[in-house]
Design brief:
heterodimer, A: 720 residues, alpha+beta, Four Helix Bundle (Hemerythrin (Met), subunit A), Alpha-Beta Plaits, six-stranded mixed β-sheet, five-stranded mixed β-sheet, 22 strands, 21% strand, flat, B: 150 residues, mainly beta, OB fold (Dihydrolipoamide Acetyltransferase, E2P), 49% strand
């Protein structure tokens, strides 16, 4: 079997493990004595090693092997965790990540041996207790002790009865001084590629000996025709412990139980045999029935030689499975794996487009049905309403499929901040909330870089040095917050720091110096306008250029990237107290609920998500403040925007009539849009207008109405 | 339209009328010819951009070639058409013409390249003059009419 088909799974899982290692090592840095963390790290490193090994990536395997050794020592208490060790481990992760990238690009791990890292790892080992031989054996030993108490957790191998031909083979083997073992392997319930795991077990066991018999048959196992368990009869000259260890080293294998198999007797006397076997093989006894939990993940089955011709097991498998001894394991937060299907994002795009078309067709039906009269009309209406609810749910489901938590992007940030903290020699801490907030996959993929820029910016420009912070009476350790939450039809991501804030004077001077504005212009500008200068291309106020930020690219890139996602970014800052960068992104990019309004002769759509209320305001209640029209509504003064003026339309309304005002919000700002008439709520599909017309800021797109006409969508965010 | 293909050294043009003059558009750019329909105006854009229409479920920008060329505002009549052109860089775009007359096949000898002396603004959009059955057809250079960055 070619391993290349598992390459993708390998890459994905490697990523997961690396991410996990990053997180765990970070927490190890905080609590160097946490055994759970250390165990988790050990397991992840071990899995990585196994995966790399099976896939034939030797360099990766070597590196992980050495990392695993170090953790093994840490676990045994022979080495204590030190700061420099954490640094080296992080470097190892970077190196592994590099291998991973190489493999993704070229299916080859590259030629970097990372010898310096391996040497450093070995130094740690030698500097430790110097008991290198403890290494890997340390892992099972603990489990052995615990496992000893569980000897009688039988396996189904004890029930296997062999045919004459196999029996003859076994007799022969025994004569040659080899031993015959039976073993039952239980695959984890969450395992997706059971057959693949089984093959790995076969392969591992066959390195030690020969598989004489398996139940279900090798062919059935290959076809995944087994539940969670399969049993093997093995002839080998190696001790049982080795064979079992080899089998349990395969990931996603929950249990391996085994013992000496006595083929002369029938299964009725197994119990007794088992006892005999134990006394005969004293040194192996403790391991015999040891259920081993191997919490690793690895994908890469290799070709397994079909085992001896299989004979159907004479006895049906018993449901009595070895007891799960989960209580012995350290608490793990590994979620139960749901059954999932990997789908190409393009297929989802196609699906989304089809749903859009369906909604347009539905809208056409709605407007066509208006002309149907009588009893037939109401029936048609009923059916259309039903259709409407189906298309709406369909749309929601498709949207949900496309949504992913931003977690996948933000989990790399704690590590980044930690590195920055070292590099910049500032103490800082990142606090994140709302990682579970979901966004369209395409948006999540793009949002990583802008967020990274903002965080780096906060770390470098925002936070003061420890001394300065002390002087100002702030805690020495600076705080950076990353908060994500949903707000109506938007998702808001805030990057906040308790640093220095933005020095508007410095920005102003810099802008004048750079020729971005003239001193006269600077006089006229308010604080907000000055802060917005930061988003100008080629603007950087860092007095010293570091490789963290201050290369003059950054904020303008952040802004353009976010605008490309139909989002926006704003800054709130207070000198000496810190700044907040607020990114606002649309939840969905394709289909929205909108309010249709009429202005003059034209129809426009306003996204329902940005609408606060609809008001009917008598003309005389409109007041003038600084020559601008405002209304006073429930103790809030709201500026009025006459849409007919903005859109250059002749309003058809009598100026003395009551005004129809749509109150829209953007963050905490409100504005009242004066329209002529309201039509109603409608689900609309946003269509791009092509690049010719994109110049128009107040129009965010167009949509096709039920009657085939095109209506424009007002971008209320641009209006406020 | 499949049979209307450029063969050998000949180029096919669709002849359109703008006012009193005849213009030719290379047929390879033409995706579709539509009857005049209601165009949704888009505010705050260049005057020659007349708005958008619904073309088979997609939103298509429509421009007035007359305004672009400095001629008078379009007068929509029964013979007015929207020609949908498709260009590699610029994508799809509709242009309003007064009339679509015929398809002509010109050999390269029949096409006379012209140099720009730009006395007339509309000459700026012309790549050559085609001689056909005694008449002259100004051949439009769509890359000039529909620039990449409008």
């Amino acid at each position: 079997m070619d391993v290349s088909q598992y390459l993708e799974i390998f890459l994905d899982e490697t990523n997961e493990h690396l991410q996990n290692l990053n997180t765990q090592i970070l927490s190890l840095e905080q609590e160097p004595d946490n055994m759970d963390t250390i165990n988790e790290i050990f397991r992840a490193a071990h899995s990585l090693k196994g995966m790399a090994g099976t896939m034939g990536y030797k360099r990766m395997q070597n590196l992980t092997h050495d990392m695993e050794n170090v953790f093994s020592e840490v676990r045994n208490g022979n080495i204590t965790v030190k700061a420099n060790m954490i640094d080296i481990l992080f470097q190892c992760l970077d190196a592994l990540d590099e291998y991973n990238t190489n493999i993704r690009e070229s299916a080859d791990e590259g030629t970097n041996d990372n010898e310096p890292l391996i040497k450093q790892l070995n130094d740690i080992l030698n500097g430790g207790a110097g008991e290198e031989e403890a290494k890997e054996e340390a892992a099972p030993s603990k489990e052995e002790a615990a496992g000893a108490a569980q000897e009688n957790t039988g396996g189904k191998w004890q029930e296997i009865s062999l045919g004459d031909s196999e029996a003859a083979v076994l007799t022969e083997a025994l004569h040659q001084g080899q031993k015959v073992y039976g073993m039952t392997v239980k695959v984890q319930e969450s395992c997706i590629l059971k057959a693949a795991r089984a093959f790995l077990v076969f392969k591992a066991v066959e390195e030690n000996g020969e598989i004489i018999y398996s139940t279900p048959s090798a062919q059935d196992i290959e076809d995944e025709k087994f539940d969670l368990e399969f049993s093997l009869i093995v002839v080998t000259s190696d001790p049982l412990a080795d064979v079992l260890k080899a089998a349990k080293a395969v990931s996603e294998i929950e249990d391996v139980v085994g013992g000496v198999y006595d083929f002369d007797k029938d299964s009725a006397s197994v119990k007794q045999k088992n006892e005999t076997a134990k006394s005969e093989e004293v040194k192996e006894a403790p391991i015999k029935a040891e259920p081993v939990h191997v919490e690793t993940v690895e994908k890469a089955p290799a070709k397994a030689e079909p085992a001896a011709p299989a004979e159907p097991a004479k006895q049906p498998p018993q449901p009595a499975a070895p007891a799960n001894k989960n209580d012995r394991k350290p608490a793990q937060n590994k979620p139960i794996v749901n059954r999932t299907v990997r789908v190409d994002i393009e297929k989802l795009d196609t699906l989304m487009n089809l749903v859009s078309e369906l909604i347009i067709a539905k809208n056409s039906l709605v407007s066509a049905s208006a002309s149907v009269e009588g009893s037939a009309g109401s029936e048609v209406n009923d059916q259309i309403e039903y259709l409407e609810s189906v298309t709406t749910s369909l749309h929601e489901s498709v949207m949900k499929v496309r949504m992913v938590p931003i977690e996948s992007v933000v989990t790399k940030f704690p590590r980044m901040i930690r590195d920055l903290s070292k590099k910049l020699d500032k103490k800082m801490e990142l606090y994140m909330s709302g990682e579970e907030t979901e966004l369209d996959r395409t948006v999540v993929d793009e949002i990583g870089d802008p967020l990274m820029h903002l965080l780096r910016n906060s770390a470098d420009h925002g936070l003061e040095s420890a001394e300065l912070r002390k002087e100002r009476g702030k805690p020495e350790v600076g705080s950076i917050f990353l908060d994500a939450y949903q707000d109506g039809n938007n998702v808001v991501i805030e990057v906040r720091d308790d640093g220095n804030g933005i020095d508007t004077e410095a920005v102003k001077n810099k802008a004048i110096e750079r020729g971005v504005i003239t001193p006269e212009q600077a006089e006229m500008m308010n604080e907000k306008e000055i802060v917005d200068l930061l988003f100008n291309a080629g603007f950087s106020t860092a007095k010293t250029v570091s490789d963290v930020s201050g290369r003059g690219v950054g904020l303008d890139v952040v802004k353009s990237k976010i605008e490309a996602l139909s989002g926006e970014v704003e800054v709130k800052t207070k000198l000496g107290e810190g700044s907040t960068w607020i990114i606002r992104l649309p939840l969905t990019l394709a289909i929205i609920q909108a309010l249709m309004v009429v202005i003059g002769e034209e129809k426009y759509a306003i996204s329902l998500g940005s609408i606060q209320t609809l008001e009917d305001i008598p003309a005389e209640e409109v007041k003038l403040v600084q020559n601008k029209e405002v209304i006073h509504l429930r103790d809030i003064v709201i500026p009025l925007i006459r849409m007919s003026e903005i859109l250059d339309i002749q309003s058809n309304k009598d100026p003395n009539e009551n005004l129809t005002v749509v109150i829209v919000k953007k963050g905490d700002k409100l504005a009242g849009l004066v329209v002529d008439e309201l039509i109603g709520q409608q689900e609309i599909v946003i269509k791009s207008m092509g690049k010719y017309i994109n110049k128009c800021k107040i129009i965010s797109g167009a949509t096709i109405l039920g009657d085939g006409e095109v209506a424009l969508i007002l971008d209320t965010n641009a209006l406020i | 339209m499949d049979e209307l293909k450029t063969v050998g050294e000949t180029i096919q043009f669709i002849v359109i009328r703008l006012g009193d003059e005849q213009y030719g558009i290379d047929i390879k750019y033409i995706d579709n010819i539509l009857r005049m329909q209601n165009i949704t105006r888009v505010p705050k854009v260049a005057p020659y951009l007349k708005g958008v229409i619904n073309l088979r479920g997609e939103v298509l920008p429509v421009m007035s070639i007359r305004i672009k060329m400095g001629l008078s505002e379009d007068v929509v009549t029964k013979s007015s058409r929207i020609i949908v052109i498709k260009m590699e860089q610029q994508g799809m775009m509709g242009i309003i013409v007064d009339e679509v007359k015929e398809v002509v096949t010109l050999e390269t000898e029949q096409i006379e390249k012209i140099s720009y002396d730009s006395k007339d603004e509309k000459d700026n959009y012309i790549s050559g003059i085609g001689k056909y059955e005694g008449g002259l057809i100004s051949l439009l250079d769509l890359n000039l009419v529909v620039p990449e960055n409008a």
